[in-house]
Amino acid sequence: MKKNVLIIGAGGVAQVVAHKCAQHNDTLGNIAIASRTLSKCEDIVSSVLEKGSMKVEGSIKAYALNALDVAATVELIQQTESQIVINVGTAFLNMSVMSACIEAKVAYLDTAIHEEPNKICETPPWYANYEWKRRDECKENGVTAILGVGFDPGVVNAYAKLGCELLDSVDSIDIVDVNAGDHGRYFATNFDPEINFREFTGTVYSWQNSEWQSNKMFEVSRTDDLPVVGERTTYLSGHDEVHSLSQNLGVANIRFWMGFGEHYINVFTVLKSLGLLSEQPVTTAEGQEVVPLKVVKAVLPDPSSLAPNYTGKTCIGDFVKGKKDGKDKEVFIYNVADHKEAYNEVGSQGISYTAGVPPVAAAILVATGEWDAKTMVNVEELDPRPFINLLNTMGLPTRIKDEEGDRPVSF
Amino acid sequence: MKKNVLIIGAGGVAQVVAHKCAQHNDTLGNIAIASRTLSKCEDIVSSVLEKGSMKVEGSIKAYALNALDVAATVELIQQTESQIVINVGTAFLNMSVMSACIEAKVAYLDTAIHEEPNKICETPPWYANYEWKRRDECKENGVTAILGVGFDPGVVNAYAKLGCELLDSVDSIDIVDVNAGDHGRYFATNFDPEINFREFTGTVYSWQNSEWQSNKMFEVSRTDDLPVVGERTTYLSGHDEVHSLSQNLGVANIRFWMGFGEHYINVFTVLKSLGLLSEQPVTTAEGQEVVPLKVVKAVLPDPSSLAPNYTGKTCIGDFVKGKKDGKDKEVFIYNVADHKEAYNEVGSQGISYTAGVPPVAAAILVATGEWDAKTMVNVEELDPRPFINLLNTMGLPTRIKDEEGDRPVSF
After folding, report:
1. What domain count does chain B have?
2. B244 and B161 in contact (C-beta within 8 Å)?
3. For A255-306, how does the pLDDT look when each residue is reduced to its tens digit (9 = 90+)?
4. Same domain, A226 and A118
5. Are B295 and A290 within 8 A, CB to CB?
6. Are A276 and B296 inside 8 Å of each other by CB?
7. Which ranges carry the Saccharopine dehydrogenase NADP binding domain (chains A, B) (predicted)?
8. Which residue of chain A is at minimal alpha-carbon distance from B268?
9. Which domain holds residue A301?
10. DSSP B369
11. Quick one: closest CA in B to A292, which residue?
């Protein structure tokens, strides 16, 4: 049964989601795109029509919406007869959009954990602070809510679940995210610098020996020889998926590692040490009040401007370590994506592509009923097989590497 | 004959000048300190009185003055019966203060070349753009104007002149300025960050083979094993003294080299590359207009706050290379100063100390008549001997190093 989709947000990820929904509008039906700035939604609609992304004849329309306004969001869901909402707006909107979905009794998907503007890095597990408080409400209303179904979190949660099924017992899951792409600029962030830097200024929580451990950013590193992108150093980082996998899989060690080049770390360290990443205003000699982080954002390139010249690959995957048939075993389940191919297909760079394709795959699985859970779930609570199979056909193929070699995965 | 002094400016260098004038008020008479902010002048007066710096009973008074107002400056010179003006205010004031001195027929001393706020790094030789245009006027009025009589420019000009007298012919003069001090902060500039960074964002002019040569900052370096501070790398930099020595000494190669640690260069490079040292305003996502350099200034430590914890030494001197008795000869004429000793004596760090002591020595030589030129001169046009002798007794002893060893210099 076809299900209409409402996309909330109009950034680089929303652009990918729109193109991918259009490519599958035989399953997903009508597409609505809503954000505060109507013109950004209209630009995405134009891009989809220009690229000829619509698989079958259908409707794709732009709407202006303040998604913090629950009543307005409910009204738009009803007006557009949407049955699935894909929320890829800013992380500050999640709770409002979820409220609207519960009220309208439609499916809710997002790709990042809820954040409150003035709070950085709250108590772990993060999902328990906002999302999970509404699990019962979803269940009572028969509402499917799939949390964090981008790439990481999202696909890597499915990889973690798959790893647990492939092995007899699992001791550790190490998720590694490397962007080996080159945008040709002196320095740029791949998404909003303000949100990007917020990720790295707080405590790094990891799950080790079945307990929360606290570290600082860039304090702990590992180096792996990864498929395609080669030897890369990654750093223990705080990330959403650690906060659900630790609670759902019964695995003692769950860690997230983000790759950074020396140049990125150097620029970050200089800016942070000088106080230029601060959200607290300073006063200039002339008496002007300024938030330094907002000035840094103003001088950095607009992330969407990077896409046309972005080259190189990303490699994101899970090292799953444990026992199989009484012997030690490690598998690496991963995807490699290409910035240029992403741009050619949907006009976005690879980071937006890997984040934007998975929620559309999830929406298709909700539409077909395979993932229509009728309650709130994180991705590792669902069967990873149909998701991985579908992503194989949608531009994000999964591979596995172990002592038997490196090969594609499908079921 | 005692000569009263008017000090213009109330920063770290003015503080040193005031203390040193007080220590020699048997020659220099009454002391007046004037700047836009009266309270800063009053703080300096208090510091002088608290330290008991006055050698003999005398007057030291604070005044509010906008030194861009020539008539007001003339009036203050007359009211205070000052015969020597030591201008250590911002470099934007020079021409106004000089006008007042010519009108009042009193001596004028400064320590840095005139700058216009909106122009960075004008055509060489810089002195010809402003100061030297008024040389005839000084001569006609019998006014002594000694330009750039801090340490560099200033003492290093006297060293250059002395080097030319010690050798039969000189081929090159390389002035090396190393601050091997440690203020214990992640990053700080030794004087106003805005003025400091202005020095390094323009073209680097040097005098080579009797012609102006243009380079970029950090493009050319040299490494020397220097007395006390050891092996240090310095970078070809633009600096005032090159613009007078090149015109006055008939030497084919005159270069200025500033020492920077790798850490300083790294921070500078990151900030400059990101556009954070720009004087041009940017607009934040919220629509606020901000000059990035002013925000950088706001987050950096106030340079005067560094003094109490500053340790280590400075080494500034001239490598003079040429012929003596038909043989190749090189001498290094230099001074080593100590940050902590400077702070203990006058409450300022070493950079302010080396800049502030020489103009007081020059004022004393004007008062005694030895340097009372009755026209406009740069320091290399005066006899270096009495200046070096006097500085030996005032906290800035000169030493010489050549093939015969390393020894103090006096005449």
Report:
1. 2
2. no
3. 999 999 899 999 999 999 999 998 889 999 889 999 999 999 999 998 878 8
4. no
5. yes
6. yes
7. 5-146
8. A270
9. 155-347+397-408
10. S
11. B295
* Mean pLDDT value across residues B27-46: 96
What DSSP assignment string belongs to A92-157? TSHHHHHHHHHHHT-EEEESS----TT--S-SSSGGGGTGGGGHHHHHHHT--EEES-BTTTBHHH
Contacts of B266 in chain A (CB under 8 A): 266, 270
Residues B363 and B290 in one domain: no
Determine the Cα–Cα distance for residues A103 and A126; give it in Å rounded to an integer: 24
Give the CATH number, domain containing residue B245. 3.30.360.10
Asked whether residue B64 falls in the same domain as residue B197, the answer is: no
Tell whether A145 and A172 lie within a shared domain. no
Q: Do B294 and A286 touch (CB under 8 A)?
A: yes
Q: Do B57 and B123 fall into the same domain?
A: yes
* pTM of structure: 0.79
pLDDT band at B197 (very low <50, low <70, confident <90, very high): confident
> Residues B97, B187: one domain?
no
What residue in B sits closest to A188 (Cα-Cα)?
B274
Same domain membership, residue A229 and residue A189: yes
Look up the CATH number of the domain holding residue A388: 3.40.50.720
The beta-carbon neighbor of B187 closest among A274, A288, A297 is: A274
Q: In chain A, whose CA is at the least distance from the CA of B283?
A: A298
Query: Both tokens of residue A215?
Result: 């570290």
pLDDT in tens, A99-144: 999 999 999 999 999 988 767 667 899 999 999 999 999 999 999 9
Residues B286 and B403 in one domain: yes
Count of residues making up chain B: 411
Cβ A276–B295 below 8 Å, yes or no?
A: yes
Look up the ipTM and state it: 0.77
Chain A / chain B CB contacts < 8 angstroms: 77
Closest among B322, B336, B5 to B151, alpha carbons compared:
B336
pLDDT, tens digit (0-9, with 9 covering 90-100), for A330-367: 999 999 999 999 999 999 989 999 999 999 999 999 99
Distances (CA, A) of B409 to A242, B122, B162, B357: 70, 36, 11, 18
Q: With an 8 Å Cβ cutoff, are B284 and A267 in contact?
A: no
**Chain A residues inside the 8 Å CB shell of B297:** 284-285
